[in-house]
Amino acid sequence: MGGWVVNVTWASLQPASGASIASDNAIDQAIALIHSTPAYSGMHLRIRIFAGIDSPSWVDAMSGGSVYIYNSAAGQGGQVPRFWTTPVEQAYAHLQVLLAAEYDTNPAIEDVTTSGCMTVFAEPLIREVTDPTSVANLVAAGYTEAADQTCQEDAIAAQGAWTHTHSSIALNPYQAISGSGSVSIDEAFTQTLMSYCHSTLGNRCTLGNNSIRTASLGTQYDQMYSSMKGTGPTLYFQTAQAALVGNLQSTVLWAIGEGANDVELPTGFETLLTATQMQADNQALTADAQ
């Protein structure tokens, strides 16, 4: 294991409008652990910022009020700001400026996620399209597919505040919602966003996906993974949770074969992988990063 993910909410980082980054936050605590504990020395961090349902209340207010979203697959939901509006996009961009000023040169931080357009999870292309009420709520609040796609590009551009740290984006086949409330999957837009990330951030762009498992997720995911392969120089994957991943070692080996240099393992991975397997996997992931 070469590091871990720090999950931190926008609300905890910037609880008040115009405030600087809160001190002794989850990022600070993780950095302190690396410096103070020999077992963690030399490890690196991915900072996963949760906006969406974890945005501060002042962001909800500035966008004209929040919208209730429910992810039926996970059984989780909450109020999200109108993330596709200019005030929220500007607030998210300013958050990146503040974070970069604080952490961009810290060698412990390897990556920060691109999460400005997320809803429930830090996967900004998911729109809870299997829940009709969520779709209707978005459309009633003024959501449009065009504004959403602009939000996706603006969130990537906001990562330009960082100059040393990689910026990752968790990709899925894009869940599109029309003005009438009809839904579709637009994997072609996902591919467009991959290109935009690389053209905007260069080698700091890290493409990823948080869903890999032994079983196929379908043709559109297969197409997306094929498009991601070899786009490097950095590529990451997160496995599904232990109960859903299937054979964890086979899943990790698949990711290595795709060119990944970083795989996030599920809680309980120690019971699913042997020490020998983990050592070999780490070596292969390091080789992918060369």
Shape: globular
The CATH topology is what? TIM Barrel
Alpha-beta classification: alpha/beta
Measured distance between first and last alpha carbons? 17 Å
Rounded mean pLDDT score:
96
Main β-sheet, spatial strand arrangement? 1-2-5-6-9-10-11
Give the total of domains. Answer: 1
Unreliable segments of 5+ consecutive residues:
none
Total number of helices: 11
What fraction strand?
A: 15-25%
| Relative helix content | 40-55%
Description:
The chain has 290 residues and is of the alpha/beta class. The protein has a single domain, classed as TIM Barrel. Helix content is 40%, strand content 20%. It contains eleven helices and eleven strands. The strands form three sheets. A seven-stranded parallel β-sheet has the order 1-2-5-6-9-10-11. Strands 3-4 form a two-stranded antiparallel ribbon. β3 and β4 form a beta hairpin. α7 packs parallel to α8 and α10 runs parallel beside α11. The longest helix has 18 residues. The radius of gyration is 18 Å and the shape is globular.
What would you say about this model in short?
The chain is an alpha/beta fold and 290 residues long.
